[in-house]
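TA notes. Do not distribute before section.
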Amino acid sequence: MKMATGKTCSQVSALQRARNAVLPLAALVIAASMFTPAMASPAKKAGPKPHAARAMPNTVIEITAVAPGQLLIEYRLPPGQTSATLIDPRPELHQAVRQPMMRPLDACAHLEEQRIVLDRPQCRAARFLVSSRPMVRNALYEAAQPVSDGSVIAYLPYFGVTVPGAGLTWSLRGPRKGYVLYEGQEGATREIRLDAAAVAQGLAHLDTPDGYRMLHAADYAYFGVTPIQREGSTRWIADPQLPAVVRDEIAKVATVSAQALTQASGQAPRRSMTVIMTASFEDGGRQRGVQMHGDVTDTSTMRLSFRTPNAKPSERDFFAWRKFVAHEFVHVWNSGVYSTDSLQPWLAEGQAEWLSLSLLREAALISPEQQREALESAYNLCMLSAGERPWAGNAASGLGQDRYTCGLSFHWLADAGARLAEAHPTQALARWGAQVRRAPHLDQDAFLADYTAPASREAARAALTSQAPLRDTLRRWIDTSGVMFADTSTPPTPMIAAYASQQVFVPLGEADCREWGFWPEAQGLRIDPQAKCKHLVAGALVQSIAGVPMPAQAGLAADRVRAACANGPTVAVQLDDGRSLELACPTEAMPRLLFIRLLAPAEPTHATATPGSRS
């Protein structure tokens, strides 16, 4: 885990570095002759029929696998056109994807934030070389991710363009001895033609996923030589470097997830699925400790990337893999069987978190203790991140981890309240299946009306819609849900302690430093070696704040800081070398950090226990 702006390092093998390097143009020509498919000479264009209206030719986007790990994208614009508008022109894509990955191959064109521009009248095409490399960015698909055998998985919407009044042609070409797989169809080449009317219709609906699907710009394309395995309507592609233990585990969990979701909902997605598993990705130091990353497109392609384990996987590794895969399978049902309100991201992400835990527990693939810890952590992380503000002003943004942690907490508490109200409690998956049959679209109103029990509905409504801090409203909701828990000022797990330490240390560090960062370690908080501070020492380990050990006792430390600042202007900080520093008190009062510890079982107790806190 990386807190604030601390630096990390990642190890990249020589093979990976070579694969991600950009080939010189001379080498590219040689490589292309071995890797690209054979192309027939272009036929002469037939002249227009007499009296026929001249339609503007299509904009052509030709993407070819030219060398291991590299794609050549050629944009051919209609005559008289000097620019094409990117289908997805978000500034973050220009910075994170197109600018670092796309290199012009000649002086004919250049790339701008929202368009491709031809620079010379005699040029009719813009040609860019895309060198694949993993990004591992939250809320972004992988633009062009390499596979160990030279294959590339690319998210085509990031490279799509249109010209007003023109149709669009996608022309995809796989490697010479391989294939291209796109939208569930594979072959040496893949071509999709859209007329101008179809393009206009898609552009008019780009505020919804339907618009991208109309433009055939909503999926990953796999330019590969990797063997494809088929099981029913599902295609499986596994990176050759992925260990067998990972492949076998993913296949098992995928089968269990698909069967459980189909049985519960009574139906399966109509589209065929493609599951692509890649081994070992780089995170550039952005996500300390990340072991996997993945997503599902609206057209049912699931991408799963795993950091190759260097030793025998632990039970914690298996738990993380299982939950990760089950979560992504729920998303497949979310886009193929039912839908959720896209303006409330917590509905989809929270439900995927809750149903993945539920189906894995019902299949005995995770233990009651693992489920309990996941639920406990989600609630505590939600409170640390979003507890001080109303949820009503946060839900639509869908930023950060709140949609996962708070979303899981909401779905869990709704289900717990429903179980409490039932004489014979229904399993979570069966209850979800009945809800999907009744209402195939889920928004916040439907969640409150159909997912929450009458006894806890008003508390749930207050948590989701009122202007009171979520810390207070969610507490009232859990009190009415039947869940048994105990309050504690001690973070229940090291992960919670690490996040809680940020709440305590960041206000102190920001008052003392111009540039800084830190990350938690077992015995303290390590300050970034490049930090520039008045009193804090770059690279030092902060062992205690206000006399309280960190990060293990972050809740008590927050209380001590609040008390110290009520009686004076500074707080004592102890370093590992014995030095004691006095840091200025933060400008705002430090909130009280209170955590919950769930009492087994995690489900509500029906007969003998009274719900609520037990201190």
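Switch to the second chain here.
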Amino acid sequence: MAFEYGTQKLNIRNPFRFEGLVRSVRGLVLTAIGVYLLLQIQPLLSTDKTQAWVNLVIGGLFVIGGFKALGVGLFQVMRFFVGRAAPASLTGNVAREAVQEKEPTLYTARSIHNMLMSKSNPTFTEPQGWFARAVHSVFPGLIVTPWPIRNMAKTLVMKITRSLIALCAFLIASLVVMMVFSGTAGGEAGSVVVSLVFQVVLLVYLGLIWVKLGNPLTRQNMTKLHTYSSGGLALVVIGAIVVPVLVAQGWIALWSELSPGNRAEFVELLPVLEPVFYTGTLLTLTLVCAAILAAIAVLMIRARIRMVEIKASSSEKNNSWRYDLHPRQIFTTLRDLVLMGKREQELPNRMYLDENDTGQANRDNEQFNGDLITEIQPVVEDMPESVVMRYSRIGGTVLAQILMLLGAVLFWLGAQSVLPHIDTWRQLVSQSAGIETVVSQLLVPVGATAATLLAGLLLMGFGRTLDRICHMFWAEIFFRSRIFDFHCEGTVMRATHFRGADRHSASSEQDVFTFDATYFALAADTVSSTFAVSGQYNLEQPRYVLSMSPCDGFMESVMGDLEQQFRQRNEEIQNEKRSDREQRLDYIRQEQEARRTGDMTAQGLVLPQQPALDSEMVSPNAEREKIARWEGDND
């Protein structure tokens, strides 16, 4: 929905200000580091051009990343512009004044009617598949949360499950390798090498699992629930069994091809090569970051489950009517008078269904029916949040930005160490240094630099994942609104009323309709939520109905006002008929008095220039002197 200026504010606050502030600080620090590196280029051009190029590349990356973080952060801090039609409708809005909405909807008019009628909520769908059921067993209240949170929770549990399977496979494989190689030729060397390979494989696998996380607030995540099949976990189990076997068999084949002399040299060199690799440290860092991320996410999910009191109920009212009105007045009065007076902030109501055939109900004893479903303009609702939700969300946001900043700094420090290693390599080659010297002076520092670069990438990846999870909990905005569902059907009767002094001098005739109808009305006070995004389309996201409560007062107010309008109009019609009847009776009394006195001209009942004609028309017959009653005593 495009931004529409109005003097009345919708009071929708910007939910991303704290997140944007922390992000802006990270952007400023990254930009400052980048500018510092770029300013070092000029002095380095005269001494070390290679280092100048390295500073140019790294400094440029830091400035680009810093400006991006700073821009996004400032965008989140700035004013939150929303259109007057915010938030999105639950389904297509068919009102005359409705704006063109492009947001995907999760409901239809029929499903909204079924929600109120059956007192159920189709938002909370049954989990599909054994894995989804297992996740909802771990989080029993997860089913009553919006779909992005459910998708994220399933993704989180899948990451934890795959990680646990990989860790168990690693421990079992390590134990098996120790048992297989113990007491064999080259067993100690084989155990060290195979365990090292296992650590590298486990590190890469866990890093890819936890660093990779898509945006939880994409349209696909908002409109569809993820399903995980058993095939993915089966591949993890198969890989956890097959990879250790292949690694062990590969080492046995390689060891058998080596000569006794090469085997002895390798065994002697192995203690020197072992410090080169920092897989244990990196694996520990990965496990610690994954545990912290999972703990914060679980805390926020559990706190979010308890934020909204879930209800599924509605108010009902039915009755029968009989009024001297056209049945079209039922829906026009309800829509344009009664419900219009119930608007919030002078915004049009959302009309999800407005169908009736009362416009064609013009014949006697003709049937009619109609339906109307409307939602009063939703207003923002500040839901009370627990201390756990507040501080876990704040702490997760700050920690995510710190991890990304530390990762960038570690990557910078690691990249700065690449050129000294190249210089060391050249010196060692020129000196024809031995293998032990090469390992101690080159390979060990290179391993440390590689570990620093990998640690930087891991920290940035974990920080981005945690930032996306926390952002989803910042983005949720709650609304409260009332939904009204009205169905009416009945029959209409038509009668013609003549208006005038008598039958012969009638000046007009009028068709009067009377409807006999039965209605059934439903109403609910609903709590819904949507997920905002930063940018032009901040609230153009689907909305989820979370809770429905009875609203008997609103129901009585609407139906009472509608019946009051009917009684008022019916009273006006009865007053007109009563006034017309009194005029006719007054004419009859004047005519009778004139006949008794014989001076009808004096009474003003006939024209003065026709006395003879009128006197001839007077009959002594008593039956002919009766007054012609053209509408009967029942009127």
